[in-house]
């Protein structure tokens, strides 16, 4: 097979130029010093005198040393009786699933917020005083809220059980000297396991024997290439990153090449995958000291339960609204007490109803329903934008992010290798840029010596030899449909050859090439050679690591120095460098049966073919960024969002990609995970800014990064696709997984899934989240203005008394519920569907400390609410006292219709109509907090009739306002409905009062907005945002 990974534990995706570094490995069989007894996963044998074995240190031990500590025999394996005993002791080799969400937990999530609890209390009080209509309406609201949220979360939320699928169902183990196929869950520490191509590694193994072995560990470490493994190595450093432990293979990784035998050192939850599962089980809740005992522990549990029930655990908006609901509940109690106090605590049935009526008026009953529906509709919009929302709360949360922590491989990059740079022996250079499809030879821009080549220039002699060699010394297949099979490196080389019209199928079809011999890639020599003949001459084509080919090529010292310098230059760009060479050979020497090659004189034949090679050129290969990544990163930075790259890849590669897409612009901001992990929390917190690039990350490193951001009060998104990303996805404020190439574990741990694996879709999600945040402010303004107006009206309305001194309702309880639940709900929902404002991605994230209730929102709601409440009072007073009837406000007019209640009922109808019309106008005015309704889109709509285009932009809101206007008339005029249900009567001349109040209200709002514009209030300013 093709050249894949070089033998260097410091960097598999970035091979060295001059071979191994002596400080990294040791061929000694000595056993490392005993580890700290506090290390997790300690395995102890029955012999008390035997030293403890720590799976975390298996890479620092020789294979015989591991066998000694685990009391096993590499040639014989465990006896069945001993295996059974160990299975009883260690348990099955299975990974426990993370704590999934049951149906009841999802249901509890819907009711675990303070506003729902307030509605439940109001419902109970309504039924207690036999106000069944009001109670029934509130029941309907509660049920609707719960059903919508429950169905949405139930469809999206699944328990995190994908880890089960990562376990190999069966494996080959050596038991009592015989190789048996056993269930993977029956493996125990000390078992000897044999692996072949395509096998899923069933447990964490210390390799004892390996031939040409490579494994795909991308889902565990983030490596973009398969990693070569070497059983003979013994690493000295106990803290070597997971991806550099080249004498180990880990559970859930896949064998891509070769075969091996290994010793099981960890099973079940002690494996690296098991540790990830343990991290996932922690969830997002507040960290608690597990050492706390007794009363304090009980109090912590009680506190956690109350936080969940009251909705104080969740996104900033959820917590803010829950706190707001508690404030409203306290205010409702205070207002009810105020009502009872005015009656000198002579609480009759009418006083009790009035008190509850005032309490109901202060609660925005439809808020949860509107928020849930607006968010659900946002998820549908995001689905069209290739983003699946798994939790409704995640959509509004993503709009407030301050930092994005992104994986590199497959997220910011394409996850596939591309040949980027070529340097030939005669100095010719070629480059490939702007590739959008790694398997499409026509994708991207090809330059030869810095200029676009013509077809004739594509095949000079040196370039032709180079392309011929990389095409023929290649076992990959690239189809015309742009699909590929084979090693990633070989695929990249084959595509490069096809760009110049010299792909392997083309060469074989146009020339009488015949394969004489193939010497496959061997990790011990790090090269591959094939011998082809065209009928007249035979040529050996070789590719491999430069340090492996340098001794085999005929080179002058000056030429050798130039080649090494050029290779160093390519490597410094984060490219993986391969050397290409060739020579003519004697065809008769290799014209023998290929079946003879595995034995006999194969070594001599290979040596003959790979001696005296002629240098052809160097090629630099890398995993290119996605074409849209740079623009997406720039858009995030313009929006005041800091983008961090957290990757398992090497620091040079990560730095190159980070600079290419704009994450890094100057020096600094780069750190290796080992350095970051060595810092204490205090030292991390003292850093001026958290690193923009963290290389060689482990799952624990990513979690530490998220925790460090939380300590800095940042609100972070974590993106990723591998198993190694899952703990941080779960720990972050919003986890985003890749849908196409992401692991099931990552998807289950995430709040959102990108169906196109496109980093740019995250920007779309953030933009949608910000739009939703803005719109939540708009419909909050609308709903709260209505509540303030009603409270003001009802409190001052205590002064409107009948002949017996009983206060007369300016609005009946059902009129209040109608205004809050019917009229306002659809208007608020229409505001929730407003388009994003033009500057939505040109301003910094909203202040999380302030939250949804900004100073502007609070001031506006009191200004509008006071104006609306005052005009409703004016409407009621104009009818009740401006044209009083013979019986004044009558008697008992709060409970039922009577002839003496005509004035009170007409005044109440006028007030209801005024409130309704003012709410309709407020819906349009709330479209923008500072711009005039009559000039809301000066960029596109100008002239006297621009207001009509403004109100027509949002068709749903236009329909809601129109429907609210039309429905007001039947409510006022329908017999029985008006007098019996709503406690008001038909009106005539009073419509003039309604119209006058509406005109005055619009004038007040427009004057307030004009004052804000003149004083510069409410304008969005792009201020400096310092990344954490």
Automatic annotation (TrEMBL):
It is an enzyme of class 7 (translocase). It is found in: Cell membrane. InterPro entries: ATPase_P-typ_cation-transptr_C, ATPase_P-typ_cation-transptr_N, ATPase_P-typ_cyto_dom_N, ATPase_P-typ_P_site, ATPase_P-typ_TM_dom_sf, ATPase_P-typ_transduc_dom_A_sf, ATPase_P-type_domA, HAD-like_sf. Keywords: ATP-binding, Cell membrane, Ion transport, Magnesium, Membrane, Metal-binding, Nucleotide-binding, Potassium, Potassium transport, Sodium, Sodium transport, Translocase, Transmembrane, Transmembrane helix, Transport. Residues 57-131 form the Cation-transporting P-type ATPase N-terminal domain. Residues 1-33 are annotated as: Disordered. Pfam families: Cation_ATPase, Cation_ATPase_C, Cation_ATPase_N, E1-E2_ATPase, Hydrolase_3. Its EC number is 7.2.2.3. Its cofactor is Mg(2+). GO terms for cellular component: plasma membrane. Residues 1-11 have a biased composition (Acidic residues). Residues 22-33 have a biased composition (Low complexity). It catalyses: Na(+)(in) + ATP + H2O = Na(+)(out) + ADP + phosphate + H(+); K(+)(in) + ATP + H2O = K(+)(out) + ADP + phosphate + H(+). One of its GO terms (molecular function) is ATP binding. GO terms for biological process: calcium ion transport; export from cell; potassium ion transport. Its main location: membrane. Belongs to the cation transport ATPase (P-type) (TC 3.A.3) family. Type IID subfamily. PANTHER family: CALCIUM-TRANSPORTING ATPASE. This is Sodium/potassium exporting P-type ATPase 1.
């Amino acid at each position: 097979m093709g050249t894949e990974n070089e033998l260097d534990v410091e960097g598999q995706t970035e091979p060295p130029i001059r071979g191994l570094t002596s400080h990294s490995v040791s061929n000694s069989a000595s056993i490392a010093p005993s580890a700290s007894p506090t290390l997790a996963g300690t395995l102890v044998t029955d012999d008390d005198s035997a030293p403890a074995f720590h799976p975390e240190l298996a890479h620092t031990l020789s294979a015989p040393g591991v066998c000694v500590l685990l009391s096993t025999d590499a040639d014989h394996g465990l006896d069945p009786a001993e295996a059974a005993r160990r299975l009883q002791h260690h348990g099955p080799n299975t990974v426990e699933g993370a704590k999934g969400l049951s149906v009841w937990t999802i249901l509890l999530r819907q009711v675990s917020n303070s506003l729902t609890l307030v509605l439940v209390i109001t419902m109970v009080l309504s039924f207690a005083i036999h106000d069944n209509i009001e109670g029934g309406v509130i029941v309907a609201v509660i049920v609707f809220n719960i059903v919508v949220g429950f169905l949405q979360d139930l469809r999206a939320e699944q328990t995190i059980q994908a880890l089960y699928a990562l376990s190999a169902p069966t494996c080959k183990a050596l038991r009592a000297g015989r190789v048996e196929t056993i269930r993977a869950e029956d493996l125990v520490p000390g078992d000897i396991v044999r692996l072949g191509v395509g096998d899923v590694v069933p447990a964490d193994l210390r390799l004892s024997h390996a031939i040409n072995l490579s494994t795909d560990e991308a889902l565990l470490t983030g490596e973009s290439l398969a990693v070569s493994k070497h059983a003979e190595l013994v690493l000295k450093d106990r803290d070597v990153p997971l991806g550099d432990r080249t004498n180990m293979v880990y559970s859930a990784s896949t064998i891509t090449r070769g075969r091996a035998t290994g010793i099981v050192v960890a099973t079940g939850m002690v494996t690296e995958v098991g540790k990830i599962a343990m991290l996932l089980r922690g969830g997002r809740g507040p960290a608690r000291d597990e050492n706390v005992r007794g009363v304090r522990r009980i109090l912590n549990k009680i506190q956690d339960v109350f936080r969940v029930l009251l909705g104080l655990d969740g996104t900033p908006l959820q917590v803010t609204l829950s706190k707001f609901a508690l404030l409203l509940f306290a205010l409702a109690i205070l207002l009810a007490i105020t009502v009872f106090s005015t009656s000198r605590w002579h609480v009759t049935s009418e006083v009790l109803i009035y008190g509850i009526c005032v309490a109901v008026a202060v609660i925005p009953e439809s808020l949860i329903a509107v928020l849930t529906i607006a968010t659900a509709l946002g998820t549908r919009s995001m689905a069209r934008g290739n983003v699946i929302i798994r939790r409704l709360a995640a959509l509004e949360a993503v709009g407030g992010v301050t930092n994005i922590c992104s994986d590199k491989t497959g997220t910011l990059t394409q996850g596939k290798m591309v040949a980027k740079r070529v340097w030939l022996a005669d100095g010719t250079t070629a480059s490939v840029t702007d590739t959008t499809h790694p398997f499409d030879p026509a994708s991207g821009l090809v330059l030869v010596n810095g200029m676009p080549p013509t077809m004739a220039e594509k095949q000079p002699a040196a370039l032709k030899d180079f392309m011929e060699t990389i095409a023929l010394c290649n076992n990959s297949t690239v189809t015309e449909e742009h699909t590929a099979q084979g090693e990633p490196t070989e695929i990249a080389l084959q595509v490069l050859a096809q760009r110049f019209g010299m792909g392997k199928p083309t060469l074989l079809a146009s020339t009488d090439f015949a394969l004489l011999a193939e010497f496959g890639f061997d990790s011990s020599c790090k090269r591959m050679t094939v011998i082809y003949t065209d009928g007249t001459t035979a040529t050996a084509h070789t590719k491999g690591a430069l340090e492996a080919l340098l001794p085999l090529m005929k080179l002058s010292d000056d030429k050798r120095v130039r080649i090494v310098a050029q290779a160093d230059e390519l490597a410094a760009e984060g490219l993986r460098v391969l050397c290409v060479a060739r020579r003519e050979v004697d065809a008769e020497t290799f014209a023998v049966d290929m079946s003879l090659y595995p034995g006999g004189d194969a070594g001599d034949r290979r040596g003959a073919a790979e001696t005296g090679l002629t240098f052809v050129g160097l090629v630099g290969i890398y995993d290119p960024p996605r074409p849209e990544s740079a623009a997406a990163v720039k858009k995030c930075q313009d929006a005041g969002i800091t983008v961090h790259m957290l990757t398992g890849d090497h620091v040079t590669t990560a730095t190159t990609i980070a600079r290419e897409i704009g994450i890094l612009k100057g020096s600094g901001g780069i750190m290796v995970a080992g350095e970051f992990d060595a810092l204490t929390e205090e030292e991390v917190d003292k850093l001026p800014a958290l690193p923009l690039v963290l290389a060689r990350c482990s799952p624990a490193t990513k979690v530490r990064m998220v925790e460090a951001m939380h300590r800095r009060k940042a609100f972070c998104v974590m993106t990723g696709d591998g198993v190694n990303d899952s703990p941080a996805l779960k720990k972050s404020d919003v986890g985003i997984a890749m849908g196409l190439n992401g692991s099931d574990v990552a998807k289950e741990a995430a709040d959102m899934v990108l169906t196109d694996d496109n980093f740019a879709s995250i920007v779309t999600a953030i933009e949608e989240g910000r739009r939703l945040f803005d719109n939540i402010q708009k419909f909050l303004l609308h709903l709260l203005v209505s509540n303030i107006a009603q409270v003001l009206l009802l409190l001052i309305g205590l002064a409107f008394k009948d002949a017996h001194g009983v206060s007369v309702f300016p609005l009946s309880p059902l009129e209040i519920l109608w205004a809050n639940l019917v009229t306002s709900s659809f208007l608020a929902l229409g505001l929730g569907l407003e388009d994003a404002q033009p500057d939505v991605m040109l301003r910094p994230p909203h202040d999380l400390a302030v939250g949804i209730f900004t100073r502007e929102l609070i001031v506006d709601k009191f200004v509008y609410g006071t104006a609306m409440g005052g005009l409703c009072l004016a409407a009621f007073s104009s009818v009740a006292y401006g044209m009083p009837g013979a019986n004044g406000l009558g008697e008992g007019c709060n409970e039922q219709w009577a002839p003496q209640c005509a004035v009170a009922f007409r005044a109440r109808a006028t007030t209801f109509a005024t409130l309704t019309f003012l709410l309709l106008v407020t819906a349009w005015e709330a479209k923008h907090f500072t711009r005039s309704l009559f000039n809301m889109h000066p960029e596109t709509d100008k002239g006297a009739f621009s207001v009509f285009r403004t109100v027509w932009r949002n068709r749903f809101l236009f329909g809601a306002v129109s429907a609210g206007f039309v429905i007001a008339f039947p409510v006022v005029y329908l017999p029985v409905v008006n007098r019996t249900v709503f406690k008001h009567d038909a009106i005539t001349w009073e419509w003039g009062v309604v119209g006058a109040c509406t005109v005055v209200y619009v004038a007040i709002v427009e004057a307030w907005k004009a004052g804000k514009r003149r004083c510069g209030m409410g304008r969005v300013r792009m201020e400096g945002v310092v990344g954490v």
